[in-house]
Each structure stands twice: as structure tokens, then as C-alpha cells.
Design goal:
Blueprint (H helix, E strand, L loop, with lengths): L3 E10 L4 E3 H5 L6 H8 L3 E3 L6 H16 L8 E5 L10 H9 L7 E4 L5 H15 L4 E9 L9 H4 L4 E11 L4 E9 L7 E2 L20 E2 L1 H22 L9 E4 L4 H11 L10 H4 L6 H11 L8 E8 L3 E8 L1
Parallel strand pairs: 4-5, 4-6, 11-12
Antiparallel strand pairs: 1-7, 2-3, 6-7, 8-13, 9-10, 12-13
Helix pairs in contact: 3-4, 7-8
The structure holds oxa(dethia)-CoA.
Oxa(dethia)-CoA (UT7) binds next to α2, α6, α7 and β12.
């Protein structure tokens, strides 16, 4: 049998501080009613000084505990993030040091915005399938509160901070990742981006822009539905799956209306699509691993179930992963 990678442990960490829609009413011209009906979000978690590496490290510990492994067992560490604490070193190197992982293993970040976790998972899966690693830790972490314009009601109500992680193990059994499909189209970068993370050098005349997230909401919404719908179909075709074969779809949590639009297109019932957007908002790279952790904890995924993960993010980037639990 060919080599595959299987998720053997999931982890999550979200900051303690809760920011509700009511709290946002005090900050910008918005209402709980608008946010709830347009997005499905009721509250989100926001850091109170914690750094990206702290969130990633805590989620990693939780995933390793779930897998019953020690940090030293990990042979590859891939972190999906676009809000690293430093330009370098990578968040992965910092997590490696924090957890006391084996020196010398490959550890690196992957930047694909809200698709970051599926990109990181894709990379780790390919390492494992090729035999280059047997055990991998894959993390999705983002702290978007640090790139929000907290005076822009069109964006600041949408995002939250958090981290999720999984441990992947090489297997020859039936379970595991069946296929992974990642895509990007850089022509659309201006639909969703941050203007810059670096200050201007003394040799430039222009001022460095403020690094706050900018988004063309309506266009992004349409592309999210189109590309995620396409990725799901691609993944289903590849694995010869009918909608009824899929036990659970875990979509990126950006907007409940996007999730509902995908559900309607595919004809998948409510009970087979996971959402926790009401409690976390859009946590970017962390959104899918947080949802996966909660779905497993809630007993929504059983051994042998086919699970479909699907994401979309700035870049634009998008992708889907099919796995048998
Ligand atoms: O993670 C990956 C990428 N992100 C996404 O996939 C997000 C995609 N986009 C969306 O989810 C939606 O487009 C939004 C939630 C961002 C916006 O929802 P919408 O239904 O497309 O609203 P809109 O942008 O068309 O705005 C409708 C109205 C506007 O007022 P007027 O011009 O009709 O008077 C906005 O100014 O709502 C206004 N508005 C708000 N009102 C109250 C925008 N933001 C707010 C707000 N509170 N927070």
C-alpha cells in the first residue's frame, strides 16, 4: 500500500479575551444586528499582548498531547501564517525553540492568508508521502487584530485571533489524507491585502504605508463562493465522491453566507457542514484547524468518515483537502 499521512492529534488555542458585537458598537458605527445577519459572527477572541508564537506554541502542545507524542518526535514543522511576530526568523523556528523540538528538523512558514493551513497541510502531506518525514506538526495561526484598522467598520468586525494545529503521522492504512488541491491567482491580490509590513529605507522618498488590511468585500465574497465551490468539486471528482459520501465539510469560516452559498450549490445538508464562526469570526489560517478540533471534540467525526476541508484567502489562494478519518 502507498504511503499516506493521517491526522492523529488536533489542538487549539484562542486568547481569553472575548470581543462581542456589542463591544464593537462602542468602537465603530455598527450594530450587533448588522454583523449577525451579514456575517453570522457574534463574538471573536483578541490577544491582550500575546504574540503569534505563543498562540502557535500552545495549539501545538495541545495537538501533541492529543496525539500522545512529544515535541522531540516531530520531524517536520510547517506553520501557516501571515502575521508572524518577526519578518524573520519564521514562526516555525520560534515554535521549534519554544517546544524544544529536535535541532536540525525542517521548520518553516507558509504564507497563503486564510488558506494558510491547507497550504501547510499540503506541503507536510507531500513530505510524508514521499518518505521525507514520518511525523509532522502543522499549525495555522494568525493574529489579525494587529493588522486591523479598528476604525474601519467594514473589516474590523470580521476577524479574530487564534491558532490550531494537527499532528500528521505516516501510515499505510486506509485512513488519512486522500487528496489535496491548492491553487492561487495573483491577479487578484488587490482584492484583499495589507499595504506593507516594512518601513521605508532612508534611500526611499515615499512614506511607508500603514499595514492595515484592505478588502473589496463584495468581489471577495463572490470569488470565495466560486473558488471554494470549484475546489470542492475538484476534490470530489478526484475521489469519486457523491455529496452523500461526505460525512462533514469543514469550510474556512469567513462569512456564514459564504458557507450557506457553498452548501446550497453542493446540495449538502446543514448537519454535514461545520461552523463555529459565531464564536470566533474569521481567524484566517487558524480557522480550519480550530473548527476541526471542535468537530472532533463534539463527536461530529467518527473513524472511517470522509471529511472535506476547504479554504479561501488573500492572494487569492484557495484549496481543498479530502481525508478519511
Ligand atoms: O477570509 C477570506 C476573505 N474574506 C471574505 O471572504 C469576506 C468576503 N466578504 C464578505 O463577507 C462581505 O462582503 C462583508 C461581510 C465584508 C460585507 O457584507 P455585504 O453584505 O457585502 O455588505 P456591503 O459591503 O455591500 O455593505 C452594505 C452596507 C454598506 O452601506 P450602504 O453603502 O449600503 O449604505 C456599508 O457601508 O453595509 C455598510 N456596512 C456596515 N454597516 C454596519 C459595512 N460594514 C458595516 C458594519 N456595520 N460593520
Amino acid at each position: 500500500m502507498t504511503l499516506k499521512s493521517r491526522i492523529i492529534g488536533c489542538g487549539l488555542y484562542v486568547p481569553e479575551r472575548v470581543l462581542t458585537n456589542r463591544d464593537l458598537e462602542e468602537m465603530v458605527d455598527t450594530s450587533d444586528e448588522w454583523i449577525t445577519t451579514r456575517t453570522g459572527i457574534k463574538e471573536r477572541r483578541i490577544v491582550s499582548g500575546e504574540r503569534t508564537v505563543e498562540l502557535a506554541t500552545r495549539a501545538s502542545r495541545s495537538a501533541l498531547r492529543g496525539a500522545g507524542l512529544k515535541a522531540r518526535d516531530v520531524e517536520l514543522l510547517v506553520v501557516g501564517t501571515v502575521t508572524a511576530d518577526n519578518v524573520f526568523p519564521s514562526t516555525a523556528c520560534l515554535v521549534q525553540a519554544e517546544l524544544g523540538m529536535r535541532p536540525g528538523i525542517p521548520a518553516f512558514d507558509v504564507a497563503a492568508a486564510c488558506s494558510g493551513f491547507l497550504y501547510a497541510l499540503d506541503v507536510a502531506d507531500r513530505y510524508i508521502k514521499s518518505g521525507a518525514a514520518r511525523t509532522a506538526l502543522v499549525v495555522g495561526v494568525d493574529v489579525f487584530s494587529r493588522i486591523m484598522d479598528w476604525q474601519d467598520r467594514a473589516t474590523c468586525v470580521l476577524f479574530g485571533d487564534g491558532a490550531g494545529a494537527v499532528v500528521l503521522r505516516q501510515t499505510r492504512g486506509k485512513g488519512g489524507i486522500l487528496s489535496s488541491h491548492i491553487h492561487s491567482d495573483g491577479r487578484y491580490w488587490e482584492m484583499l491585502y495589507t499595504p506593507g509590513a516594512l518601513t521605508g529605507s532612508p534611500f526611499e522618498r515615499r512614506n511607508s504605508p500603514r499595514p492595515y488590511l484592505k478588502m473589496k468585500g463584495n468581489e471577495t465574497f463572490r470569488m470565495a463562493v466560486k473558488t471554494m465551490g470549484g475546489a470542492i468539486k475538484e476534490a470530489m471528482r478526484k475521489n469519486r465522491l457523491r455529496p452523500e459520501d461526505i460525512a462533514l465539510v469543514i469550510p474556512h469560516q469567513a462569512n456564514i453566507r459564504i458557507i450557506n452559498a457553498i452548501k446550497d450549490r453542493l446540495g449538502i445538508g446543514n448537519t454535514r457542514v461545520f461552523s463555529n464562526i459565531d464564536r470566533y469570526g474569521n481567524t484566517s489560517s487558524a480557522s480550519i484547524p480550530i473548527a476541526l478540533y471542535e468537530a472532533v471534540e463534539a463527536g461530529r467525526i467518527k473513524r472511517g468518515d470522509v471529511v472535506l476541508l476547504v479554504a479561501f484567502g488573500g492572494g487569492f489562494t484557495w484549496g481543498a483537502t479530502v481525508l478519511r478519518w
